[in-house]
Structures are given as structure tokens and as C-alpha cells.
């Protein structure tokens, strides 16, 4: 093994230990991604979704970098991992990412959607068959991960050059797929299509910690348009983005996500969506005035009730003021507002409140619903999903059981 930053042969990187060097690992040929007929739509639209999967020759999975540093932020990349990943971040964050598992970024044989032009929205994704509630619609690993500090602090010219250098580290088809996204330059493509994510191994780190806050660009995921009452929920684990259906999606229906907090009132949602450069005309935003006002009133009630429950649980003696029905009311408000992608949170609150007052029937009902909704939204092993399964099967053994009744 020679140690070099050359683009072929045995590659060296500070991100791998000597034992992990992959010099003699034979290159595995990646399988050809499905495409063509399954999408049914025009070829151009198929390519939007599948091009990065069609590389003729696979690359070895080797982390490289740092290169092209600007202060503490450098470019790190791995051409062979999950279709190709490039990072602009610190060495510490890059090492952390390199230690994480990633999903294999390959489209399923028959993706349940095709890309099409949607009037007034640009490109979007349409279901080509019935998609079941709870079904994974798409799973992608980030192609580009960028720390927020260079994104917000660098002068535009330096930043654009820096981003182009990072993009150059991706395999050509992946780079081409990136360039298909909406936005006039690389910066705008990142800005319009990226998801905020926290790169940390420290529980409790928040997006406000600039060292940890990053923007992740996930090819394919960028084609989901916004709806204030979307039919999917997404989660980001490590640097993998997973989109799951939160209700049954009919063939021909557009697959949507929300870009903003759907529990906000209509004017606030629309204000935030202005930043994305469009006026939202989704069914919820297009309700007749009286129904829109009713929705806003429900959202206000939902917010107040949620805050009241939090406050009472946190304040000494606060549980004395609580009534078991408050939990059920909260869940009802979420259901009436069709906030299908937030039901895990609402059902969990409801189950806990009923458990505090030893209502066995309601506790098991809401804990069972919460277990299913939380698993759908966050994965089967998510701690709240595990806790809700346990509450549903043995309510009396849970920490919350009866604590509302035991107070003096
Ligand atoms: C992440 S991209 C989604 C894909 C995009 N339609 C395209 O053609 O690349 C976000 C952009 O799509 C458009 N968009 C998304 N949802 C929309 C909606 N509900 N109404 C109008 N435009 C929307 C906006 O221009 C927004 O800035």
C-alpha cells in the first residue's frame, strides 16, 4: 500500500485505520438499479430518480480527505459508499459519520412512484400503485452533508467554489443527479433541497450547536413536494433519510411531505413557506374561510392543551390540576386536524395521562395506537415505541401508573 491521495490504487485517509485499508478488497459490481418500465412515465423523469444507481463500475468504499480545507472545515468523501457521499465538515464530525452504518442507496426493483410535472409545483412524485399505511416509500443516504457554518458564513464566491469541489468528489452520475435539483447554483440547490440534521454522538445536542448542525442533501427525496397535511412522515437516522406512508396512498395520488411544522396556524405556515419561494395552495391552505378559521382554532386549542399537559407534569403539584380526559382530547384534536404524521406524539401523551389516572381500558387503547404510530414514524426500536408496547401489555407495571391518584 502506498499512502497517497491519488484517485486510484490503494487510497489513504485519516478516517480509516491501517487495518481497515481496503487495498485488496475486490471491487464488487453494484447491481443495476431498476428503472424504465416500472416508472411508466417519460424516460427523462425516470432518469431523475435512477441515474445515480446505474454506474457501470462500482467504486470501493474508502473514506478520503481532508482536502480543500477552509479553516476547520474540509472536504471528505467516499465514492463507493451508498452511491457516493461527500462531506464539508470538521475532521471530528467526518470520523463520526464514517463510523455510522448507512443504507444501501439503491431503489427497489419497482419503486411505488414515478416522477411527473405537477402544475404550479415543478417536478413531484406520484404513486403508481396503492401504497400501504406504514410502508417505506423511499430510503436514501445523504449525497452531500454540509456544516451550517460555511453555508451561512462564507462569502458567496468562496462558498460556491468550495461546494463545487465537494460535488466533484461524487461519482459522475450522482453529481449529475444533484445538478437536476431545483436551484440556480450549487448553493441554491443545497438551500432549497437539504434537510437539517445533527451530527453528534452526544445525546441532547441540538441544531443550535453550529458545530453539530448540518444540511443533508438526499437525491430522490428532493422531488417530494410540500403539503401541510402530507401522506408521509420522514425520519433521519445517522445520515439516512427514510420516508414512510402515514395513510394509504391511492394510485395517481401525489406523495408529499411537510416542509414546516403542520401544527402551526395557516398564516404562520404560509409565512414560513414563503422562504421556500412558493405560496402554499395545498387543500388545508385552500379551505373556505369558515373551515380555515375552525382549523386555526383547533390548532390553537391543540397547542394550549399540549403546553398545559407539559406544564402540569413538570410543576410540583401540577398533576392535581390534571384530568384524564385531557389526554383523549389532545389525541382527538390531532385526528380531527388530520395531522397523521404526528399521531405518535399525540397517542403517547394520551396513553400516559390515562395511565396516571389508572384508566386501564383507555391506557391500553392509546398505548397500543401509540406503539404502532411511533414505530411507523421512528422505527420499531425507537425507545418510545418499545415503552408504549410495554405500557399496552402491562399498564400496572409502568412508572406512570396511578401517579395522578397518589398525590396528597
Ligand atoms: C424540494 S423541491 C421539491 C421538488 C420541486 N418541485 C422540483 O421541481 O425540483 C422544493 C421546491 O418545490 C416547489 N414546491 C414544493 N411544494 C410545493 C407546493 N405545495 N406548491 C408549490 N410549489 C411547491 C417549490 O418551488 C419549492 O421551493
Can you tell me about this structure?
This protein has 408 residues and is an alpha+beta fold. 35% of the residues lie in helices and 16% in strands. The strands form 3 sheets. It has a 6-stranded mixed β-sheet with strand order 1-2-3-7-9-8, sandwiched between helices. Strand 2 and strand 3 form a beta hairpin. Helix 8 runs antiparallel to helix 9, helix 9 runs antiparallel to helix 10 and helix 10 packs antiparallel against helix 11. The longest helix has 26 residues. The radius of gyration is 24 Å and the shape is globular. The N terminus is likely disordered. The chain binds S-adenosylmethionine. S-adenosylmethionine binds next to strand 5, helix 6 and strand 10.
Write a brief structural summary.
By secondary structure, the protein is α+β, with helices and mostly antiparallel strands.
In round numbers, the mean pLDDT is 84
Beta-strand portion reads: 15-25%
Low-pLDDT parts are 1-45
How many β strands by DSSP?
13
Strands side by side in the biggest sheet:
1-2-3-7-9-8
Q: What is the fold-level CATH name, i.e. the topology of the largest domain?
A: Beta-clip-like
Number of contiguous helices: 12
* Overall helicity: 25-40%
Keywords for this structure?
408 residues; alpha+beta; Beta-clip-like; 2 domains; 4-stranded mixed beta sheet; 35% helix; 16% strand; disordered N terminus; binds S-adenosylmethionine; SET domain-containing protein; SET_dom_sf
